[in-house]
Write a structure and sequence with these properties.
This protein is mostly helical. It comes from Amaricoccus solimangrovi.
Length: 391
């Protein structure tokens, strides 16, 4: 397939990804730091993060399915972006913990909807316009890396409040770009799915095994997402270096996706690509349990190309092959609701208990989940032979 840079549709898709990832590229590493600056304890930060992720179970199931049912993927993302920006601005006046929790839940709901619907638009644009999905996704991830570097440096110079305003601006940019997203066109003769059909899809046994494999491999990142920045700060790393380390991980993801990611996922197939994610996670999180602070952090962050990107491309390949196109957002939402919702929330809750007591040894949670995910991938290879699932 052609490079996304050779078509206006590919460039627009990459630009939308970049604008959204410039939100998540700040939210993941620096929002826990913002909450700590607001006055929450490490345990409270973990609890807030866990509950915020937990809302993705509900929002990630309902909102993408509704977007498919109404055939309104672009409009749904635009509304979520605008609402997310407004909620973040409201944080400037929050003075009580319960209200802060409500803000966390509302922000989590917006992120839960935008991610899977955006992936449905991205894969659809790739099919409609004939460009390679993996490089477009990788080019978009440059926004994540840029946000890591820029906001890390800006926080060092101006304070953590910069993170909030950065996300507000990028939410608004994403709303502007999604309005004409090339993956949102209507397909002649395609009937929006009924609720009963969506229910049949998400309860299909093969789809459930796939979701379990994706959930365990991707939720293995929970300790790192919730406490990686805080733990590195406690170990004496500067905000600038922490931002650079996060950027190195995303940089490895970008290089992998732009260069060989599509070919590797195509050669391995969806199941083996997911299994590679679990195998790499066993190595990465085992090493992180020893609190490394020197040069070894760089290759460990480089493993993000496998622990995240290989698994993500495997998941996109599975959905493209196994799921009828009209269920795209619903399938993405159901998978994300489990992988980035329920299972990640439970793992983050475990991290909230483990980190104050064990410190870096809490990365053992990620090690165990990676091993479990690898085992489920073996099962997926036995129950799915590449066919499109009947709904």
């Amino acid at each position: 397939m052609a490079s996304p840079l050779r078509s206006a549709a590919g460039r627009h898709t990459a630009a939308f990804y970049a604008s959204f990832f410039m939100v998540s590229g700040v939210y993941m590493p620096f929002w826990p730091l913002w909450l700590a600056h607001w006055g929450l304890s490490p345990g409270e930060v973990g609890l807030f993060t866990s509950l915020g992720i937990g809302i993705r179970v509900v929002a990630g199931l309902i909102i993408p399915a509704l977007a498919d049912r109404l055939d309104a993927r672009r409009h749904t993302i635009a509304v979520c972006c605008l609402f997310g920006a407004a909620i973040l601005v409201c944080h400037l006046w929050i003075a009580r913990v319960p209200v802060l929790l409500l803000g966390t839940l509302a922000t989590g709901a917006c992120l839960a909807a935008i991610g899977p619907i955006g992936e449905a638009l991205g894969t659809a644009a790739s099919r409609f316009h004939g460009f390679d999905y993996a490089p477009a996704r990788g080019l978009g991830s440059i926004g994540f890396m840029f946000a890591n570097l820029a906001v890390g440096a800006l926080i060092s110079a101006l304070g953590v409040q910069v993170a909030l305003w950065w996300m507000v601006v990028c939410f608004l940019l994403a709303a502007l770009l999604v309005a004409r997203h090339p993956g949102g066109r209507r397909v002649q003769g395609q009937i929006p799915p009924r609720i009963g059909e969506i229910r049949a899809l998400v309860t299909n046994p093969v789809f459930c095994v796939f979701v379990a494999a994706l959930s365990f491999t991707q939720a293995s990142h929970a300790v790192f997402y919730a406490y990686g920045t805080i733990h590195w700060t406690d170990l004496g790393l500067s905000e600038t270096r922490i931002g650079a380390l996060w950027a190195a991980g995303v940089g490895a993801e970008i290089v992998f996706m732009i260069t060989v990611g599509g070919a590797v996922a195509g050669r391995l197939g969806p199941v083996r690509a997911l299994g590679l994610s679990g195998l790499a996670g066993i190595l990465r999180w085992a090493a992180m349990m020893f609190d490394p602070t020197g040069w070894v952090l760089w290759p460990l962050m480089g493993l993000h190309a496998l622990t995240f990107a290989a698994g993500h491309l495997g998941a996109m390949a599975f959905i493209t092959r196994a799921i009828p196109a009209r269920f795209g957002a619903a399938a993405q939402g159901a998978a994300a609701a489990m992988a980035a919702g329920l299972i990640l929330s439970l793992a983050t809750a475990g991290a909230a208990w483990a980190y104050p007591r064990l410190g870096g040894l809490s990365y053992g949670i990620g090690l165990g989940m990676s091993a479990l995910g690898l085992g489920v991938c073996v099962l997926l290879g036995r129950v799915w032979r590449g066919q499109e699932l009947a709904v």
